[in-house]
Amino acid sequence: MKKLFSIILALVMCLSVLSFAVADEEIKLVYWSPEDDESAIAVDNAIIEKFVAAHPGVSIELQHGSLSDILAKISAMAIAGTTPDFAFFSPRYVAAMVEGGYLEELTDLYKEIGDIPASFVTPTSSEAIYDIPCVMDSICLYYRTDLFEAAGITPPTNWDEWLAAAEKLTQDTDGDGVNDIFGMTLMGGIPDDYFGFTPILWANGAEFFNADGSAAIDSPAAIEALDFAKKLAPFCPPGMENVNYSDNLVLFASGKTAMVLAPGRVMLSIEEYSPDLLDKIDMVAVPAGPSGDKPVTKVSINDFVVFNNTKHPELCKEFIKFYMSDESYELFLTNSAPGHMLPTRNAYLEDEAYLNSEKIAYKADKVKKSLGLAFDYGSDYVLRNGGAYNPNLSEGLASTVMAQQINKMYLGEVTAAECAKTIADTWREDFGIN
Amino acid sequence: MLLPALVLLLFLIVYPFVRTVELSFMQQKMTQATGKFIGFKNYSRLLGSSEFWTSFGLSVTWTVTNVIGQVVFGVIISLLLNRTFFCRTIARGVSLLPFFMPMVSMMLMWRWMFNENYGIINSLLYSLGITKEPVGWLSTTALAFPSVILVSTWRYTPFVTMNILSKLQTIPTEHYEAAAIDGASGWKAFWHITLPEIRDVLQIVIVLRVIFMFKKVDEVMILTNGGPGTSTMILPLYTYKNTFESLQLGRGAASAVLLMLFVFILMVFYFRMFEKEDDVR
């Protein structure tokens, strides 16, 4: 009996050692994404499943974090050495990560994929490439074609027309003395207000920072842009000082406002709240301001990055390449917030399969237009100043002073000039810049 | 025997505290692994900043009004719930609900209730003819802070209610019967019987509420995020934003240390005040 027991025990021990050996061979990657949209999660999981099926012994765990505190979280993880293997996030955080030495170089991978415009890649202090632009959204000026027609006006091509349209389309439609439809909606709440203001700033030829890294938010053109945003505020629904990104979309999608600066996600909001409005909207690029020379669309590019504390950098790159391959990429574009997530690959500008896919076809004209506007006029934070690298960009945009001051400006507590000066002075002191 | 507790104390309280104090003397961003020692510069910058003192003032107002509201309403509700009436058990359960409901869901619910365009509060006021235009409960500087205080008072009053009610139930009814025989009014019975009996519990409850409310950040963050402008930027939220949004670890740590010192001084003062009163008694 004792002998039998010993044999069984030895067998069990051998099996457990074997399982550990097998476990040792299994590779687990952690993929971090801030996209918490249900469709985005489902698509990511579907692509992971396909990749894992083709790579036995590999598992990928998808983790999520909030968009609002990415930089703080990733910074803390980077310092602690607990970053995920690779991640998907905004390029405005890439520079800080590169500066800290936390990212793996991806130049070869970028060349392999081959058709992403170089202008979309995040500039850094070196010539190397550290991010793969995967997708973008395109913030345009969406407007209600039916309301414009009824008012006898055309989409604005300059700021005077824009302001006049906002005023004309702010109406009391039921005669109770209170306006119930408004010409415009803006993100005026903290912390999204600076994000909503960004395309207005750029459309006036102004910047947050100059090419040499000095503060530019207090330039005359920037103050002019702030002043214009403030002039639009009275034609926004009450409470615009507390309106955030989602509220902004809902207000337009529910028919409360005639215009909105929004990405393609507004179409998804319309499909949810008022599907009959989908045929009554169109978009233009944000009109150039008096000091600007061309219209603008604000694109928000999202990139893949690989952290250099990963034990499997080549496998991470292989996953990214798989994600960007036609099969997975099309799955992603047509299922993850379709029409909002736009391709960064040139090949998809006119891709019939993409534009004729079930979830895009009925709004293909709008998707194609916003894609065209993105490629023609699109700019993102890191692409300004000809792509000049700015080590303070991430922190400047994340700093509370800008959101607070712009909010105070909308409240009437400070003027545009005072707002700009406070932001610029704080940045100069915090970053040691001019 | 004490070793596990001491180890936990060391890692969960002592180390974070010491590290925070250390950071408060450094200039360090969150993206940096190490910082530069700058002495008391973070403190002098904060103490010389009008924003810091505005936040401090808001925190004091927030704490005082919340605690007064919670204690007053908490005592009133507990007195009512101590009486015998039909469905008293259900009433007790319902009155405690705000404290036990998930915080984030509740705050989002209040945010929607306060919404200028779609909120039920404005809708009710408008349909009753009380207002003709939407009221900016969370979007105007005049109303945002009182609105947030109201919500917070609503949420934490049950905590006071629970504690006071527990004590009320231990007061012998004979005291009230004797008082009634002597012709004491309800108010006199409250002042001379109830209040002395619940005094000790009230002291503890007030101390706890002051500590909790002074360092509260979640309700304000969800409802207004410190806005509009900086009208609801209480000190803990100011500290949070300095640390996790402006990424200034050193400055945030200094703000946290100052916050801790304020609460500590408050508590020392409070306990000394009640020690003296106990000595007199």
Mean pLDDT of chain B: 90
Overall geometry of chain B: globular
User: Per DSSP, what share of the residues of chain B sits in E-state strands of 2 or more residues?
Assistant: under 5%
- From the spread of the alpha carbons, the general shape of chain A counts as globular
Largest sheet of chain A: 9 strands, mixed
Portion in beta strands of chain A:
5-15%
Largest sheet data of chain B: 2 strands, antiparallel
SSE string of chain A: HEHEHEHHEHHHHHEHEEHHEHHHEHHHH
Low-confidence stretches of chain A: none
Side by side, the strands of the main sheet of chain B go 1-2
Whole-number total of structural domains of chain B: 1
> How far is it from the N-terminal to the C-terminal residue of chain B, by CA?
40 Å
The CATH architecture designation of chain B is Orthogonal Bundle
Interface with most residues: A-B, 35 and 32 residues
**Could you name the CATH class of chain B?**
Mainly Alpha
- Tally the helices of chain A: 20
Q: State the CATH superfamily name of chain B.
A: MetI-like
What would you say this structure looks like, in words?
The complex is a heterodimer of chains A (434) and B (281). Chain A is of the alpha/beta class. Chain A is 47% helix and 12% strand. Chain A contains 20 helices and nine strands. Chain B is an all-alpha fold. In chain B, strands 1-2 form a two-stranded antiparallel ribbon. In chain B, a hairpin with an 8-residue loop joins strand 1 and strand 2. The relative contact order of chain B is 0.14. Chain A binds chain B through residues 69, 71-72, 75-76, 78-79, 96, 99-100, 177-178, 189-191, 237-242, 251, 256, 394-395, 398-401, 404, 407-408, 411, 413, 430, and chain B through 29-33, 115-117, 132-134, 136, 138-141, 224-230, 233, 241-248.
